[in-house]
Amino acid sequence: MDAGSLNSSATKSQSRNPLQEQFLQRRNSRENLDRFIPNRSAMDFDYAHYMLTEAKKGKENPITSSPSREAYRKHLADSFNMNRTRILAFKNKPPTPTEAMFSDSSASVQHAKPVKARRYIPQTSERTLDAPDLVDDYYLNLLDWGSSNVLAIALGNTVYLWDASEGNTSELVTVDDEAGPVTSVKWAPDGRHISVGLNNSDIQLWDSTSNRLLRTLRGGHQSRVGALDWNNHILTTGGMDGRIVNNDVRIRSHIVETYSGHHQEVCGLKWSASGQQLASGGNDNLLHIWDRSNASANNPTQWLHRLEDHTAAVKALAWCPFQANLLASGGGGGDKCIKFWNTHTGSCLNSVDTGSQVCALLWNKNERELLSSHGFTQNQLTLWKYPSMVKMAELTGHTSRVLFMAQSPDGCTVASAAGDETLRFWNVFGSPEVAAKAAPKAAPEPFAHLNRIR
């Protein structure tokens, strides 16, 4: 990680407004030009640079550009000093497709049956926000969308909150250089409390409503914490030290379990919907499945399955919403595959070569579809039909690898953040068949104890 770029984050933030909508010329009525597009020779240079650096095993983060190239990019930024004054607000949902055609089921006269219309999938992002100082690091997890419809994003040493309902941006916390940068963020299920992983191995718990630090968890890791996930009152953390720690936030001695199996950085963590199985991926190319219900008394932290099929780092993990034991995983630049697993048996059900680094995965909550985000060469989001894995759409616009994705609470909108320092919103999953607004949730009992634990 470039220390110089981190030290200059405060200066850059002063000259750019985080999470402001970009007002830029459009090529046509449905495309935002949010970045200068280099000429062909510059693009060829990028390709050559990528081919020289990407193939190194275990190196998911390419070498930073030369000083001359950075100076050129800074010159362009100064030349195109845009006025960004309006915070992003969602448009109305896309118009519904025209009615499907009706056809007879046979030559005989029968009642016509409606054919389900194909869903309209916008090919460009609906909105683009500026995200200065977003750390271009494959192993981190810097974006999450909470159940209260507030999106959290870490930009350098600062965590910002963007309220999708109101269109308001606020700053949750800025940590000092000794603790930062922020390396992971994850909302608790209640949508009010949020965990923040730091470069110095600490994990902070915040109340977003009062902007108050409730607790700092220490002692579980020896280096940066790049992966977080919640399982009710258990906050699971994964670090560069290869450790996975279960922290019970209700008690003072918060470390209750430690999983050992990875020997390099843990960059992916996801609990299943039931809370019984945990999937973990690491820079050691390993994917582990941990099962709390099947843990033995002699070794309660022994993995259920150790899966070695990926040939690069495993960060992208997504549990299927319609099949409890189905897990999708994505491999880094040396693997480029999306694999599907039966987590009860540990068998690989399918493997699809995507052609590029897989950075993140999200299931559609309303249809049997999977969305993946990728690195070079297209830096695209790809929508797949499951289980055929036929490509339904490719969404382009980012000019650097799409490192992070998060899904809105209603399951319709996806936010993506990339190394080009932009945050884009896509209406890729359409509208849910049954629209229901969740009732406001009170803070669960585990968090009531945080005020008394220091």
UniProtKB/TrEMBL annotation:
<dbReference type="InterPro" id="IPR056150">
    <property type="entry name" value="WD40_CDC20-Fz"/>
</dbReference>
<keyword id="KW-0498">Mitosis</keyword>
<feature type="region of interest" description="Disordered">
    <location>
        <begin position="1"/>
        <end position="32"/>
    </location>
</feature>
<dbReference type="Pfam" id="PF24807">
    <property type="entry name" value="WD40_CDC20-Fz"/>
</dbReference>
<dbReference type="InterPro" id="IPR036322">
    <property type="entry name" value="WD40_repeat_dom_sf"/>
</dbReference>
<dbReference type="GO" id="GO:1905786">
    <property type="term" value="P:positive regulation of anaphase-promoting complex-dependent catabolic process"/>
</dbReference>
<dbReference type="GO" id="GO:0051301">
    <property type="term" value="P:cell division"/>
</dbReference>
<comment type="similarity">
    <text>Belongs to the WD repeat CDC20/Fizzy family.</text>
</comment>
<keyword id="KW-0132">Cell division</keyword>
<keyword id="KW-0853">WD repeat</keyword>
<feature type="repeat" description="WD">
    <location>
        <begin position="259"/>
        <end position="300"/>
    </location>
</feature>
<dbReference type="GO" id="GO:1990757">
    <property type="term" value="F:ubiquitin ligase activator activity"/>
</dbReference>
<dbReference type="InterPro" id="IPR001680">
    <property type="entry name" value="WD40_rpt"/>
</dbReference>
<feature type="repeat" description="WD">
    <location>
        <begin position="395"/>
        <end position="428"/>
    </location>
</feature>
<dbReference type="InterPro" id="IPR019775">
    <property type="entry name" value="WD40_repeat_CS"/>
</dbReference>
<dbReference type="InterPro" id="IPR015943">
    <property type="entry name" value="WD40/YVTN_repeat-like_dom_sf"/>
</dbReference>
<keyword id="KW-0131">Cell cycle</keyword>
<dbReference type="GO" id="GO:0031145">
    <property type="term" value="P:anaphase-promoting complex-dependent catabolic process"/>
</dbReference>
<feature type="domain" description="CDC20/Fizzy WD40">
    <location>
        <begin position="129"/>
        <end position="426"/>
    </location>
</feature>
<dbReference type="GO" id="GO:0005680">
    <property type="term" value="C:anaphase-promoting complex"/>
</dbReference>
<protein>
    <recommendedName>
        <fullName>CDC20/Fizzy WD40 domain-containing protein</fullName>
    </recommendedName>
</protein>
<dbReference type="GO" id="GO:0010997">
    <property type="term" value="F:anaphase-promoting complex binding"/>
</dbReference>
<keyword id="KW-0677">Repeat</keyword>
<feature type="repeat" description="WD">
    <location>
        <begin position="175"/>
        <end position="216"/>
    </location>
</feature>
<feature type="compositionally biased region" description="Polar residues">
    <location>
        <begin position="1"/>
        <end position="26"/>
    </location>
</feature>
<comment type="function">
    <text>Component of the anaphase promoting complex/cyclosome (APC/C), a cell cycle-regulated E3 ubiquitin-protein ligase complex that controls progression through mitosis and the G1 phase of the cell cycle.</text>
</comment>
<dbReference type="InterPro" id="IPR033010">
    <property type="entry name" value="Cdc20/Fizzy"/>
</dbReference>
